[in-house]
Design goal:
The protein is of the alpha+beta class. The protein folds into 3 domains: about 260 residues, Thrombin, subunit H (Beta Barrel), CATH 2.40.10; about 100 residues, Pdz3 Domain (Roll), CATH 2.30.42; about 90 residues, PDZ domain (Pdz3 Domain). The two termini are about 25 Å apart. The strands form 5 sheets. Strands 2, 3, 4, 5, 6, 7, 8 and 9 form an 8-stranded antiparallel sheet that branches. It has 9 helices and 29 strands.
Length: about 500
């Protein structure tokens, strides 16, 4: 049987990989214009499900939506060396040692060239030019932001876009073009979606001009797909509306013409649509976009617990009826959860009055709250119900990596190589981090071995897990200097 694979929709048109030095470019943030939050507000009006009459066309609704969906193309600037002299003379000189003619200058010169990365889609969400798209649409093959982003409107106008900010953990990026009175699509609250609601996917698939497909909401709250890695926040809308390469970053709209999602990925054997597509909910995308406008980054709430979903055996052992909730397996020292009295063994069943059925729901909810937000946690402890108010901290890279159980490599648990680790794993000395556990389904299961000590990453010494997390380059090949059982060597691994 062929293996089913999940793939993010990279619509890359270039057929060859060019290896060269890429010019540095930092993400650009806009701060000159006053910030208007109206464009990021959600329409909380539920979908009207009372009608029973037959629809024969959605053309009038789509005529208002399609101008809001744009084509996003990217390119990277590379530096190459070019010989200025006659190529024939240069070959004769190299092969036969012919002298350089007097007065000639055949020394190679450096020049810049633009290399196309690919095509995708985007959605205009404000009249003054804010555009939502996917992070992978505006990224190059190494995961860095493209040097040049071009937006083409349905009427043919082209604009050079500024990257306001991007968030790889949700695959959301926000662009800005210098234009006014653009056709912006209103955003609905995707939390109101139900399975069976009609939706339309609008984008530019397979390099074609704008295309609209129709389907229904097949499922909501899809997670654990592995599209965004272990640190990603997956809460996808699933739809059978056809989504193909090039649709990434395009709009998923409801029957009223309101944006409910950003098309992102498909489940496919062949790379084409088989009716299982995924979109980022508008509730998440709007929250990310607003954070990017305000600060150029996403500052997430931090609870400080290690959690897992309940299974029937665990639920019975903890006396939880129905097996719902998420189990607290650890509380980080000095974390907001510890300050609020949350303990290991608590089963969290509610958050701000909303039922919690699994760990993904809790993680997504907390991640969309800003640091300093007070949330109410409802839990069961020793068979008794309780609740606590928790003031969330900030989930920055340091606080993430400070947890010794953090998987900086997917499916691999590492810990600081301290004196305790030296005794536990028989290390030759302290320093760096040590591989403590490798899961069987980890993509690095054939690379790492428990007890392997990582001393350097990309030729920089590793002093802690936090240090290792900062040194790793996402979406690129990393060079590790490791030691295991007295043997020291290099490892080259690609981190998605």
């Amino acid at each position: 049987m062929r293996k089913t694979t999940i793939s993010i929709l990279f619509a890359v048109l270039a057929g060859a990989l060019t290896v060269c030095a890429k010019s540095d470019k930092q993400d650009q943030n806009l701060s000159s214009a006053p910030i208007s939050t109206e464009a990021f507000a959600l329409d909380n009006t539920p979908i009207d499900r009372s009608n029973t009459h037959q629809y024969t066309s959605y053309a009038s609704m789509l005529e208002k939506v399609t101008p809001s969906v744009v084509t996003v193309s990217t390119s990277s600037v590379v530096r190459v060396m070019r010989n200025r002299g006659d190529p024939m003379l240069d070959m004769m000189r190299r092969l036969y040692g012919m002298p350089v003619p007097e007065g000639s200058n055949s020394a190679p010169v450096e020049e810049e060239r633009k290399v196309p990365n690919g095509l995708g889609s985007g959605v205009i969400i404000s009249k003054d030019g804010y555009i939502l798209t996917n992070n992978h649409v505006i990224s190059d093959q190494s995961g860095d932001a493209a040097d040049e982003i071009t937006v083409t409107l349905l009427d043919g106008r082209e604009f050079t876009a500024t990257l306001v900010g991007r968030d790889p953990q949700t695959d959301v990026a926000l662009l800005k073009i210098d234009a006014q009175e653009l056709p912006a699509v209103p955003m609905a609250n995707s939390d109101n979606l139900k399975v069976g609601d009609i939706v339309f996917a609008v984008g530019n698939p397979m390099g074609l001009s704008q295309t609209v497909t129709m389907g229904i909401v097949s499922a909501v709250g899809r997670s654990r797909l592995g599209l965004l890695g272990e640190r990603g926040y997956e809460d996808f809308i699933q739809t059978d509306a056809s989504i193909n390469p090039g649709n990434s970053g395009g709009a998923l709209v409801d029957a009223s013409g309101r944006l409910v999602g950003i098309n992102t990925a498909i489940l496919s054997r062949s790379g084409g649509s088989i009716g299982i597509g995924f979109a980022i909910p508008s509730s998440m995308a709007s929250s990310i976009a607003l954070s990017l406008v305000e600060s150029g980054k996403v500052d997430r709430g931090f609870l400080g617990v290690t959690i897992r979903s309940m299974d029937p055996m665990l639920a019975e052992s903890f006396g939880i009826e129905g097996g719902k909730g998420t189990l607290v397996e650890g509380v980080q020292e000095g974390s907001p959860a510890e300050a609020a009295g949350i303990k290991r063994g608590d089963v969290i069943v509610k958050i701000d009055g909303r039922p919690v059925t699994n760990d993904a729901e809790l993680r997504i909810y907390v991640s969309q709250k800003k640091p300093g937000t007070v949330i109410n946690i409802g839990y069961i402890r020793d068979g008794e119900a309780g609740e606590s108010d928790v003031t969330l901290g900030s989930l920055d890279s340091t606080s993430i990596a400070a947890n010794a159980g953090e998987n900086i490599f997917e499916g691999v648990r590492v810990q600081n190589a301290d004196e305790e680790a030296v005794k536990q794993f028989g290390l030759g000395g302290t320093g760096g981090v040590v591989v403590a556990e490798v899961k069987a389904d980890s993509p690095f299961s054939r690379v790492f071995i428990p007890g392997m000590q990582i001393l350097e990453i990309n030729d920089r010494p590793v002093t802690s897990i936090a240090d290792a997390a900062k040194l790793l380059k996402k979406g690129a090949v990393n060079r590790l200097w490791v030691t295991f059982r007295g043997q020291t060597r290099y490892l080259a691994i690609r981190v998605p």
